[in-house]
Amino acid sequence: MNTPGPTSGLLHHVELWVPDLDRAVRSFGWLLETLGYERFQDWEAGRSWKLGPTYVVVERSPALTGDRHDRRAPGLNHLAFHVGDPAEVERLAADGTAHGWRLMFPDRHPFAGGDAHYAAYLENEDAFEVELVAANFDAGR
After folding, report:
1. Burial group, residue 123, by CB count within 10 angstroms (0-12, 13-18, 19+)
2. How far is CA 118 from the centre of its chain?
3. 13-134 belongs to CATH 3.10.180.10
């Protein structure tokens, strides 16, 4: 009997090459585990965390050509994650400072993405950006 696999088109994994594995594990590990991901793989140059069929990898590759991520250059700009509600967005944004994240666009928080979009934009020490989007937000309130 064949068990159906994941939905076609669903993201399989994302691999982020990082300049410092310890910093990446501190920031991404905390965030991903807080969001419900479980530690999946662990090797000398990398780690991964999995939620459902999707996993996220941070790796200090020997083929890395630079020492800093630039989200404004061609390539990955940021990762966006669903979060339960505005209170959870605020809690994660506040707690993130102890794990290497800082709030971006504080003057426009939590509506830096527009009035109908409640989110926190965080950047870690290596300039990787994540967006934490409140899934349960009614802009009409």
Report:
1. buried
2. 16
3. yes
